[in-house]
Please model this.
Amino acid sequence: MVAIEHLWSSLGATPMFWLAVTLAAYELGNTLQRACGGSTFASPVLTAIILVASIVGMTGTDYRVYFTATQLINFLLGPATVALAVPLARSARLVKENVLGVGLALLAGSVTSILSGIGLVWLFGGSRAVALSMAPKAATTPVAAAVSSQIGGIPALTAALAIVGGILAAVVGQKMLAKMNILDWRAHGLAAGVAGSGIAAAQVAARNELGAAFAAVGIGLNGALIGLVVSVVAQL
Model:
């Protein structure tokens, strides 16, 4: 038993170990999704989160140790998001042609997300800090956490809400739109962006370049719009 504990202590302190665990969990999630016929309910991101969180919890590993060991993945989130600018540049003309519809959809989506989040917290008797943490949840996670810290919210709670919302959008978003007979990839991409879901945006980007362009527009402009609207709401 002592030898096992010593081995675990050595492995747990190795940055490459947690990086390998995270990548293996995601690959296992991919395998599970393929086994389920590509179902969005078997999201590899959700599977990886559950597996890694379980391992971190069972081993008593401090989250700061895990986060430090997986900084490479965190760093690559930036270039991955910026890469959405490639299909956006290729489809710039079509985006310009739909600028009015995009603007109205962004405004409706952002305002609805902000007001519904605050309303739910007030309805159940939550505090002002929790309400302000809910308000920017539809922005992509780094933006949402930054806005939350500026208006008096709880950044960690906002980040958790944004991640959960992003996973939910990736799991049910495309199926919901399909059931409503909304098959236009512009709508699918913009919906993923307005939901602030990088996971859903990546799913759309993998299937359609035009959808990827509108997802990029949605993520970028929605983050900026939520920052402005939430700041005004916080003053009220």
Observations:
- The chain has two domains: 2-77, 85-235.
